[in-house]
TrEMBL record:
Organism of this sequence: Actinomyces slackii
Domain of life: Bacteria
The protein, known as: Probable phosphomannomutase
Alphabetized CDD domains for the sequence: PGM2
Top-level taxonomy: Bacteria, Bacillati, Actinomycetota, Actinomycetes, Actinomycetales
Family (UniProt): Belongs to the phosphohexose mutase family.
All residue ranges annotated as the Alpha-D-phosphohexomutase alpha/beta/alpha domain in the record: 56-197, 222-321, 336-445
Amino acid sequence: MTLSPAQTLDQAVSSWITHDPDPVTREELSGLLQAHLTGEAGATAALSEAFAAPLAFGTAGLRGRLGGGPGRMNRAVVIRAAAGLSAFLRDRLGEGFTVIIGFDARHGSAQFARDTASVVTGAGGRALLFDEHCPTPVLAFSLRRLGADAAIMVTASHNPPQDNGYKVYLGGRAVTDWGQGAQIVPPYDEQIAAAIAAAAPANEIPMPQDGWEAVDPRVIEEYLERAVKAAHTQAAAPLRIVLTAMHGVGGALCRQALEHAGFDDIVEVAEQVDPDPDFPTVDFPNPEEPGALDLALALARERDADLIIANDPDADRLAVAIPDPTAPGGWRQLTGDELGSLLGEQAAELAAFAGTGVLANSVVSSRLLRSIARAHGLGHRQTLTGFKWISRVPDLVFGYEEALGYCVDPGAVRDKDGISAAVRTAVLVSVLKQQGRSAVDLLDRLARDHGLHATSPLSIRVEDLGLITTMMERLRAGGAPARLADSPVTARFDLLDGAPDGIGGHLPPTDGLVWTTAADDRVVIRPSGTEPKLKCYCEVILAVEGRPMVEVRAEAEQRLEAIKADLRGVLGIG
Ligand SMILES: O=P([O-])(O)O[C@H]1O[C@H](COP(=O)(O)O)[C@@H](O)[C@H](O)[C@H]1O
Ligand SMILES: [Mg+2]
């Protein structure tokens, strides 16, 4: 259904329009086609983009702009994706395979979820559809809890309002390894993609109007119970917590989870508490983006809070900020690596007590977790980006990635979970408070024990995806710079060749570059698999050696800035 060399753009568009069951995208494409035929360059460009290639599985499933055509998110694409997945499951399991379907509150999500339930039913599967929007971790939990063979979450997470997406998980009888309940990786993603490519045109796929079931809402209660239990203890010292759902679907559940864990002083960011697909108060509903926590920070200052908890719109990510008199404005947002290290240390203490367990983080996350694991006599694994990789590590007790993702209870949710991680964080902060300490004190202790590991990202957002390919090509052709922050670059890995996984094996090949310097600084560069961005992840490690922490942190900051300046030079972005 995509543009073959022999097909002209207008033929491909006309044929797609004939098979598109959605009058809205049909009309949009017809308008663009008319404009294209009269020579409007903008229309030609828009159609070329929408028909260049079908949406492909990236870091977290399919994700793209809403609109007509095979390279966009729309009902025709979703119907064919559901048909491909159903064919894949039917081939492996025969009829009667079970698929659970969840959806967020974005534009199109509820319709895409209903279409999916209909297609699964029409293909002889048993479809279980959530009645209402739900957080991604609830869907991931339900897959394992109900023993379904697959699950689909219709969400584009924290992307802009114009996007939507499709996260695909396998479980039950469909896979039997450690990946049970996780999002798909090769070879399943390739097999499912091939089944999608082979699917009939969307309007020829059987779509009964009923026959699917509602997910029993008790599973949400069970999720809640489990998320609270995962913290092991309850609130110690009371905390005033400012909570934001970032206009997403996690607000009510996160609040309840915190309340069940004993936190009753919760102040919600009223403007962001209800789901709103337009995310009106933020430029990007991504707690990683500057400004996303502004309302929460203002409220926390006004109400003299102890902690800010922010989920992304599908509530699988968690951002945290804490009071810090040395930080500008008196509050400090922890990086994903900082919170990952704090939760990692806590998980390591618990696991070391039990005598077993593995900690894991992605190749773009801090190396501190490995030192923490070693210090507690535990295993550590390095994985590729994304929880589809982190969550399938055997004997995992805790996994995180720098992109604000944490998995504190892999037995329940084989994915990141912003709600169970929020409860654990609140409990940790409250236990520390009871001891007269803060999260910053614990971070300082980790720095003294293992060296200060400071990380900082440099993200380059582009309009034209081709620019990312060009930048990666240029970096590969030109090699690494000789020096970064004045230290010679001593090792270069191309992740296409597969980097070491930390236990004598190699990671599957992926597009990315890793450079390390004599000073043990490290840079990883890779294209995002969910957004049009090139991402550079920088890390420096500094020995503390009795120096005041402010001094060491300032030095780390400077070195990170120097690395980023060098990278801007290499990338030619001034
Ligand atoms: O969007 P979410 O919250 O599901 O998050 C998704 O995207 C993040 C960024 O990926 P990339 O760097 O490829 O853009 C990944 O780290 C994460 O595992 C994935 O689930
Ligand atoms: Mg998310």
